[in-house]
Amino acid sequence: MPPRTAPDAAPIVSINGLTKTYATGLQALKPISLDIKRGEIFALLGPNGAGKTTLISIVCGIVTPTSGKIVADGHDILTDYREARAKIGLVPQELTTDRWETVWNTTAFSRGLFGRPPDAQYLEKVLRDLSLWDKRKDQLQTLSGGMKRRVMIAKALAHEPSILFLDEPTAGVDVELRRDMWALVRRLRDNGVTIILTTHYIDEAEEMADRIGVINKGELILVEDKATLMKKLGKKQLTLHLAEPMTAVPPELGEYNLTLKNGGHELEYAFDANAEHKGIAALLRRMTDLGVAYKDLNTSQSSLEDIFVSLVSDRTERPKP
Questions:
Q1: Same domain, 260 and 139
Q2: Which of 7, 162, 167, 233 has the maximal Cβ count within 10 Å?
Q3: For residue 254, what are the domain limits?
Q4: 211-216 and 219-225 as β-strands: parallel, antiparallel, unpaired?
Q5: How many whole angstroms from its chain centre is CA 309?
Q6: Are 39 and 55 in contact (CB under 8 A)?
Q7: Per-residue pLDDT tens digits for 203-220
Q8: What is the pLDDT of residue 109?
């Protein structure tokens, strides 16, 4: 595995002040600035209509921005379009393939579109990595949906891009294939390709991403290392299964964030993941002093999905100034 890029290295994608407003007046993207680190897997999360695909389409040169500047691997996407676009591979949401073409020919054609010389050895490696080699002579119309999605990735990789955008790469594929795709994305990253993906599957981002961005209503509301995000915004929960049900939380336990559940049979304690040392041991000692017995206890921690829903809901429900 090649060494990871130093934290202070220049970003491979730099987005500054990017906006998009359509002729109808719809502001699809509010000013967005974002740097993507070389060699990372960056997951962009957001509800439907949040602006994920618009953002990707602008960076890939498909949609023209209203304002802003984008540099892809040293090339301005507007003033140096051809060189910038050659650095980028894109796997779109929609499966757009020539149904009569073979797997090999459509992949080779995609390579030629970017002016790359023929390289049968490289294309063979790509197809083998995607478990498509045995299908290389098959027409695309004969393939399953999952195999067609693999072909879309092969086409995106055919010209050896340094940046790969995956827009909902596992939409509509089964769980086993999703796992295969995750493994493939990791291998690509290990081989030096920077991955930017959008996904509706929060567990996908939690499994793979190095950093996470959350976009909502055209606004980038958060960008954070995954581990830092989980630590900073994650909540832990202790559930105590009481020996005898309670009708109310004793006032002597009022300093703790306690809630009675399940008809008074369970006592729930929510606390910051960073501050667990402050509470659990003291709470259990205090309960013993008060004669409050429990039969069992268990803990849980909020997932990335919990954090995402909380962030988006907060923005949706927040009153406008």
A1: no
A2: 167
A3: 235-301
A4: antiparallel
A5: 14
A6: no
A7: 777 788 999 998 888 999
A8: 95
What are the tens digits of pLDDT across the range 159-171? 999 999 998 887 7
pLDDT for 1 equals: 39
Domain-located, residue 287: yes
Burial track 81-90 (b if 16+ CB lie within 10 A, e otherwise) = eeebbbbbbb
Looking at the structure of the chain, the number of domains it has is 2
> How many CB atoms sit inside 10 A of residue 276's CB?
15
Of 202, 231, 260, the position where a domain reaches its end is 231
Cα pseudo-dihedral 46, 51, 57, 58, rounded to 10: -130
Q: Which residues contact 253 (CB under 8 A, 6 or more apart)?
A: 283, 286, 287, 290
Where residue 39 falls (left for φ over 0; alpha for ψ -120 to 50; beta otherwise) is left
Region 96-116 average pLDDT: 90
Average pLDDT over residues 112-123: 94
Assign 21 to helix, strand or coil. strand
What distance in Å separates the CA atoms of residue 121 and residue 110, rounded to the nearest whole number?
A: 15
Mean pLDDT of the 47-54 span? 86
Tokens of 211: 């950093």
CA distance 27 to 83: 29
Same domain? For 164 and 269 the reply is no
Q: In angstroms, rounded to a whole number, what is the distance separating the alpha carbons of residues 55 and 66?
A: 12
